[in-house]
Amino acid sequence: MSKIALGNESLVGSLTPSNKKSYKVTNRIQEGKKPLYAVVFNFLDTRFFNVFVTAGGNRITLYNCLEDGAISALQSYTDEDKEESFYTVSWACGVKGNPFVAAGGVKGIIRVIDVNNETIHKSLVGHGDSVNEIRTQPMKPQLVITASKDESVRLWNVETGICILIFAGAGGHRYEVLSVDFHPTEIYRFASCGMDTTIKIWSMKEFWTYVEKSYTWTDDPSKFPTKFVQFPVFTASVHTNYVDCNRWFGDFILSKSVDNEILLWEPQLKENSPGEGTSDVLQRYPVPMSDIWFIKFSCDFQFSSLAIGNQEGKIYVWDLKSCPPVLITKLSHNQSKCVIRQTAMSVDGSTILAACEDGTIWRWDVITK
Questions:
Q1: Dihedral sign of CA atoms 337, 342, 344, 345 in order
Q2: Average pLDDT, stretch 233-243?
Q3: Please, are residues 114 and 94 in contact by the beta-carbon 8 Å criterion?
Q4: For residue 180, which of 160, 204, 155, 205 has the smallest C-alpha distance?
C-alpha cells in the first residue's frame, strides 16, 4: 500500500473564475424520462470528432454536434431487455477501422454495436454484476477494459469477443470497481478505482502474449485461456471514501471521491518492490455540491482543461495547465437544476455536453470574442 508523502502541501484552486473563456447554452435535448449516466465524444477517429454517444435506460443514442449549436440524432439502439440500464459507453474500433460503441450497465453484459451496420457485433458475457465503466485503449482501440460491481476489471478484445485478462483476487479491489483508465502512452498500464477507497495501477506487460493471441484466436471465445492477474503494481489511498472517477494526466492521476474535490497526484512506484511506493498529492480542484457518487469528469483531447458537473446542475471548468489550479469558468443556467452524471468535452474543448439525471443533454459552446 502506498504512503502519502508528508511535508508536501498540495495547492488548492480558488473558486473565483478567471473567465478567460466563456461558454453559453446553445442546445438542450430531452432524450427521455430515464436518467442519462454517460455521454462521450469520439476521440479515436478524426472523421467522427463531432459525434457523441449517450447511455441511459436500455438505450444508446448517437448524435452529431453541428455548427451553431444544433444536434442531430444519427441512430439509437434499444436493448431487448427492458430491465437493462446502461451506465457507461465507450467508442472502440474494429481491426479494419470500423467504428464500434461498447455499452454496459446493470445487467453486466457489454453490447458491442457496429455503428456502420447498426447491428450488435458481439455481446461480451463474463461479469457477475453491473458494469460501471468501459474505457478503450487509444493505441489499440479493439481493446477495452471494464470496471464492475463484481470487484473485477476485465480486458476484452471487442473484435473477437474474447475476455483476455481478469484483474481480481488477492491484491484486487474489495468492493465495486467504479472507474478505469488506460495510461496515455504506456500501452501495458492502466488504473482502476472504486468503493474500497483505493486506486490501483496494473501492468499487463508480462501477459501481453495473451493480448496478441486474442487477435488470431479462431476457436470458441469461451475456450480462450483467460488469465487471472491478482496483484497490481501499486495501490494508493489518497481518498478516504468511494473513488468514482480516475483519469491519467501524463504520469500523474486525476481522481475524484465524494468530498467535493478532484485531486491531482503523482504515484511514485518503487522499481524493485511491486505494490510499494508513495503518493504525492500536488493539486486540489474544488467542486462544490458533488458529494454523491457516480459523477464523472471529462477532459479535452490535449488535457488542457477539465469539466465536471455537480448535483445542482452546474459545471466547473478547470484549467489543467496552471499551478496553482485556476477555475476557467462556472456554467449555470436557471433551468439546469438536476444532477449532471457526466460531462463530455469536445476535442478542442470548445463544446461541453452534460448528461443529466432528468434525461436531458445540455450543450454549451465557447463564446468566440
A1: positive
A2: 95
A3: yes
A4: 155
Residue type, 104: G
| The C-alpha cell that represents 65 in the structure block | 454536434
pLDDT tens digit sequence for 180-210: 999 999 999 999 999 999 999 999 999 999 9
Find all residues with CB under 8 Å of 222, minimum gap 6, and list them. Answer: none
- Residue 276: pLDDT above 90? no
Chain mean position to CA 302:
16
Cβ-in-10-Å burial (0-12, 13-18, 19+) of 240 comes to exposed
With contact defined as beta carbons under 8 Å apart, do 275 and 235 qualify?
Answer: yes
- Give the integer Cα–Cα distance in Å for 120 and 354: 27
CA distances from 94 to 143, 158, 213, 302, 348 (A): 10, 7, 16, 24, 25
Write down the residue that cell numbers 499551478 correspond to.
323
User: Using CA atoms, how far apart are residues 364 and 165, in angstroms rounded to an integer?
Assistant: 39
DSSP state of 69: G
Amino acid at 12: V
Rounded to whole angstroms, the Cα distance separating 280 from 238 reads: 9
SS3 301: coil
Residue 318: φ, ψ to 5°: -105, 140
55 touches 89 (CB < 8 A) = yes
Maximum Cα–Cα distance across the chain: 59
Half-sphere exposure at residue 196, Cβ-oriented, CA atoms within 13 angstroms: 20
Cα separation of 53 and 150, whole Å? 26
User: Are 151 and 169 within 8 A, CB to CB?
Assistant: no
Task: Give the SS3 label for residue 33.
Answer: coil
Contact 131/87 with Cβ under 8 angstroms? yes
Distance CA 264, CA 158 (A): 31
Q: Is the pTM of this model over 0.85?
A: yes
- Closest among 226, 149, 161, 147 to 191, alpha carbons compared: 147
Q: How remote is the C-alpha of 200 from its chain's centroid?
A: 15
**Coil/strand/helix, residue 240:** coil
